[in-house]
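Dear support,

I submitted the protein below through the web form. The confirmation email said the job was done, but the results page showed an empty box. After a refresh the structure appeared. I'm attaching both so you can tell me whether what I see now is the final result or a partial one.
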Amino acid sequence: MDILNKIAILQKLMKSALLLLLLSLLVFTASAQSVKNQEGARYPGGVVELKKIVHRHLDKSLIAKEHISESRLVLKFFIDKSGRAKEGVIIGTNNIELQKMARKAVRKMERFQPGRVHGKPSQTAMILEL
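What the results page shows now:
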């Protein structure tokens, strides 16, 4: 009798494991489908042109004074549904002048082709390593 109980318990565990595996597969498939329906914002001229605009508005001497390696600067901003860049901030520094320069650089950007979710324009967060 003892062995029959163990087999019954093992069968229940196997059914539970199989159910869990199937649920995991469904969740994975749904998240993969959701990624297919998303498209990020694009800048005219690509990332190279985008970086050029930002570098034109940053004061290199101020960056050096802050002891920040230019290769470690990261700019975060948002692109709204109409493709306008907004709310630029440099991550990793509290320097007010650098933050002003970041906001000015973001304001000077041409319009992006906005990101899309399920074919509709959507706000997008951008992180640009300079």
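Response: this is the final, complete result; the empty box was a page-load delay. Residues 1-36 form one domain.
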